[in-house]
Amino acid sequence: MRNIIEEARVVLPGVQALFGFQTIAVFNDRFEELAYYAKACHAAALIMVIVSVAMVMTPAIYYRTCRGHATGAMVKLSSVMIRGALCPLAIGLALDMFTVIHIVTAGMSARMMLSVAAALGTLLLLSGLWFYVPRRARAMTRKNRRP
Questions:
Q1: Count of other CB atoms within 10 angstroms of residue 108
Q2: Predicted TM-score (pTM) above 0.85
Q3: Contact (Cβ atoms closer than 8 angstroms) between residue 49 and residue 15
């Protein structure tokens, strides 16, 4: 359980910093110039990061409410919460990538296509690195252990 809480302590500052940058963006003058759907993407990204923060913080709070007595169920739930927090984080980052590329490509005819492609590329990259690669490594380790 302590390892899980340490993992959360490592991840949380980065997610909180991201939330801060996302929040500041709405006070930028250029934010007002964004199309409604780009603002909606940014708002959805902000919500996804909040969900991620909540999931990362839950194990430590759960552990404290149980007065520091870890159970098997607590460890399992905490592990699921930390791993699960990466999903809304990946979605939030992909949505913000859409917004950024939408701003950067202003005036280009393929603006929407480039923004969507960047968002999908971000989501695929993060999903691959955060979910597929570890799952594949785990499967390979299990396969190598079998006689």
A1: 12
A2: no
A3: yes
